[in-house]
Specification:
Blueprint (H helix, E strand, L loop, with lengths): L4 E5 L4 H12 L4 E5 L12 H6 L19 H7 L3 E3 L2 E7 L4 E6 L5 E5 L2 E4 L3 E3 L12 E2 L4 H12 L5 E5 L3 H11 L5 E6 L11 H13 L3 E4 L3 E6 L6 E5 L3 E4 L1 E4 L3 E3 L2 H5 L10 E2 L11 E3 L4 E4 L6 E2 L4 H15 L13 E5 L2 E7 L2 H6 L4 E9 L10 E9 L5 E8 L2 H16 L4 H5 L15 H13 L5 E2 L1 H10 L5 E5 L3 H10 L4 E3 L17 E5 L4 H12 L5 E4 L2 H7 L7
Parallel strand pairs: 1-2, 1-7, 2-3, 7-19, 9-16, 10-11, 10-16, 11-12, 18-20, 27-31, 28-29, 28-30, 30-31
Antiparallel strand pairs: 4-5, 5-6, 8-17, 13-14, 14-15, 20-21, 22-23, 23-26, 24-25, 25-26
Cofactor: FAD
EC number: 1.8.1.14
GO molecular function: CoA-disulfide reductase (NADPH) activity
Amino acid sequence: MACERILIIGGGVLGPKVACRLKRLKPEWDVTVIDQQEEIAYSACGIPYYISGDVGELQGLMTASFQMVRSPEFFEDAKDVRIKTRTQALALDRQAKQVRVRQVETGAEEKLSYDKLVLATGRRPKPLNVAGAELPGVVSVATLMQAEAVKRRISQGEVAKAVIIGASPRGLEMTAAVSDLWGVETTLVEPGSQVLPGLLDVPLARMVQYEVQCRGVQVFLEESVQEILAAPGEHSLEVITSTHRLPADLVIVALGAEPRTELAVSAGLLASPNGGLLVNQRLQTSDPDIYAGGGCIEYPHLLTGKTIYFPETSLAHRQGRVIGTNIAGGYATFPDIVGSFTLKVFDLGVAGTGLTLETARNEGLTAEAALVVQQDHAHFYPTQELIYLQLVVDSSSRRLLGAQGISPNGDAVVGRVNSIAALLGQHGNLEDLAHLEVAYSPPYATALDIVNTVANTAENLVTGFNQSISLTEFQRLFLEEARDDVICLDVRGAANAAPFVARFPERWLNIPQETLKYRFKEVPRDKRLILICNAGMRSYEALRQLQTQGFDNAVGLQGGVAALKKAGILTLE
């Protein structure tokens, strides 16, 4: 190939990945990466864990797996990639194939020529557009310098109160980072109606929220920040929301991210209405000599066919290899994405893939969701944690649409969600998941894994054998409306049910499932029955027993008492 000059704008994740792939395929080529920051190729995802103290040294976020620092010298010596830091791209001339750049320190400008150009400009934090957002102490913590400054302030005792704006993944990670180890009094403010909006459905979002609240964090939902004031008193800032005045020494803005595409858009490259660059499967932009990936692009979602903005680091790594292969003369394509994510919230692992139930229904799909609670290890093994896993399926086609899970054993829940993500990518259905072969040993799993159980539960729902209600429906019917025509039929043992019977004597009936066939006459036919057990299995069996006796007024509670407690909806013991 004649092409020898490759210019890459952006030294985050994607840019260095493309550069290294190219130099392995075409060692003789001239590959240059420019970035306006001093540090390149660092792990921005690790910033919360540096602030929390889980990562001891800031340099740890800048090293390769073999402990070499990813400095410009490292790339130039070990990879033969030319690096220009503190270099800002100002304008792109597609016809001349040149990029005008400026040295940040000196202001000197020059034009860099290319044969192929890679836009790896990434993302930026969404701004907080209110008065006072520029005050000292209001930060997004998106760079290493910001992370170091925040940790220094906290470690020196300068931060007693913090306000986190946005219950995004970064917002929750930063909430845990500043409050867990350092003991900072923390408040989380979210303009939406739940934490992790768009990523979790309400039942699991409630569980995550309750975990945060149990750690002493105040959570205010459906509150918008109106203004931030400099305060002369004990705390230097005051956050004014729609209903509160919150004193703070530190305010962290975590409203999500947006693509950094001004350079590309001003040069006429096609972008979506949301600002993300549009690319084909080879990751070429509307100019075939310009490639893009990572946080500056939108890409088709496998389940909807629509482009979405999903700037996950793992996608950028894989996209970098595709771009490098194609520029070097090969032919590689990047598949449509399913949108997998994971994060750690205090000691709780959270993961998801595909569509939420709400999103699926908004897309016009006939979606249903099944929530299952099950141990991560065999019941007789001495150590175990519960996994809370929700599966979203299309009830018409039985196609898998998505999954969400939480567990104190983060590795366990991520592994299960990843297995479902793989099936989503293959257009998998309920039968595929029900029969998915998974490895089993008592210290690591149960004989019937939770991924198989949740598929079986979903099949029972879509075939009509199981009628159920969600946690939020239970809360509305039984707790908030407290309707006289709705009673709970607790099919657990008497000792487990006794506290609930004592609290709701007129509306909580206890008949253990193993005795139900002898006591059908005690079950009212003129009430709506919510069947409850610890996790959902016995209540399903009781439901089937009642159905054979002509009861058509019963539903099971998904996830049972375990899910109610985990969400903080009903914590009575």
